[in-house]
Input
Amino acid sequence: MSDIDHDSAGGNGNGNVPARQIRAAHTDTTITVYQAYSPSLGLPAARDGRFPPAWKRERMTWIKPSFLWMMYRCGWGTKADQETVLAVEITREGFDRALRDACLSHHVPDVHGDRAAWKESLRAAPARVQWDPERDLRLNPLPYRSLQLGLSGPASRAYADEWTVAIRDVTGLAREIRGLLGAGDEAAARALLPAETPYPAGPLPHLGA
Output
């Protein structure tokens, strides 16, 4: 456990934050994850509420429940081919299945035993997990981790064509928050952050959490 006030992550609650914990906007049936794409992919996806045929379903795709980690990754929507930031609402059933079937993307002896066993698990898994440092409002690293979930093969196709409930373009929100930060109004910027609370995934020993 890390004795860090959760407010430092953007006002998403108080209390001690575990070193590895999924925090997300979620309902009883859905969870919101974030991705960023070029406008040629992102705008049609948001317009139609589903990923277009040009979205390559055979490739691995990485989804992030943390809005601020997505902002770190895409530079508030300023990086090349990441100019359109999407909030993708997917079923918790699909997300939970992916977690259940996932393997850590790197070898952890306490989790996997020997490296050969980990490599075999990774090869067979339709999903993989990375725990990256969570980010604060200024996108500085925090001492606890945020989930990245990589989906490939059948999991990637299911994400695009079965699990997705809604897709929203949140590029404007990203730019507004960035603008407020640039103007020195951190309180107003913080007030616009999506409310992310601990996701009830339960213990995930196979993912080191």
User: Anything to note?
Assistant: The chain has eight helices and nine strands.
